[in-house]
Amino acid sequence: MQLYRLVYYSEAADNLTVQDVKSISAKASIKNASLLISGGLLYCESKFLQVLEGGIRPVNKLFETILQDTRHKNVNLIHFSRVNKREFEGWDMSFVFFPTSRDFYPEYIKYSGDDSFDPLSLDGDVCVAFLRGLLERHKR
Ligand code: FAD
Q1: What is the position in ligand 1's atom list of the atom closest to the CA of 65?
Q2: Nearest residue CA, atom 27 of ligand 1?
Q3: Are 78 and 130 in contact, with CB atoms under 8 Å apart?
Q4: For residues 40 and 29, is the Cβ–Cβ distance under 8 A?
Q5: Is the pLDDT of residue 138 over 80?
Q6: Contact status, residue 64 vs residue 57, Cβ threshold 8 Å
Q7: Which among 53, 49, 11, 10 has a CA at the least distance from the CA of 32?
Q8: CA-CA distance, 134 to 31, in Å (whole number)?
Q9: Ligand 1 centre and the CA of 21: distance in Å?
Q10: Which residue's CA is minimally distant from atom 28 of ligand 1?
């Protein structure tokens, strides 16, 4: 099956806690592994940036489910394309949490001229490189 990559940005629902997000991530990891979906999820300042990689049908179906989840809002698709290889191979759903974007300032300003964290100002490939870099250095 051809490999596809999807990147989106969203904002947490008002009442969502970090514990809730950790629970979403733990369950996601199990389901994604069963669907051969790899990826990463960043949560910072009530913002989500997620990359999903896998077959076209599983990725689309999962994104449809995620879109309907009321634990987040303002979901924006940043990127969807066919790719030759996984950038998150072996990471069924790696999760990183930072209370503030100042915590990843050095990584972020590599890709942005502005220090306020705004994933919508980044293109898909940059989101992937940024998230990969964060996961490699800060995976918890
Ligand atoms: P069910 O749990 O029965 O879900 C049925 C429907 O209810 C789905 O539309 C689901 O989104 C929604 N839902 C489930 N629990 C809640 C709740 N507590 N509050 C509100 N709505 C709810 N899941 C993954 O498997 N992989 C991921 O990579 C992934 N990433 C996510 C990223 C974010 C930012 C968020 C908010 C959720 C993510 N989820 C992910 C969770 C996903 O939305 C589903 O809850 C999960 O996949 C289980 O869905 P289901 O249809 O299999 O089962």
Answers
A1: 9
A2: 28
A3: no
A4: no
A5: no
A6: no
A7: 53
A8: 23
A9: 11
A10: 28
Answer yes or no: is the C-beta of 32 below 6 A from any ligand 1 atom.
yes
Give the residue, out of 41, 45, 52, 69, with the most ligand 1 atoms within 8 A of its beta carbon, to mutate for a pocket test: 69
Residue 113 main-chain phi, psi, to 5 deg: -85, 0
The token pair that represents 34 in the structure block: 């069963």
Counting residues of the chain whose pLDDT is more than 70, the rounded percentage is 99
pLDDT tens, position by position, 3-45? 999 999 999 999 999 999 999 999 999 999 999 999 999 999 9
Q: What stretches of 67-118 adopt beta strand conformation (E)?
A: 72-83, 94-98
CA of 126 to the centre of ligand 1 (A): 26
Do you know the residue count of the chain? 140
Please tell me if the CB atom of residue 62 comes closer than 6 angstroms to any atom of ligand 1.
Answer: yes
Residue type, 14: D
**Strand 47-55 relative to strand 3-12: parallel, antiparallel, unpaired?**
antiparallel
Which atom number of ligand 1 is nearest to the Cα of residue 31?
25
**What is the arithmetic mean of pLDDT over 36-58?**
96
Q: Which atom of ligand 1 lies closest to the CA of 39?
A: 28
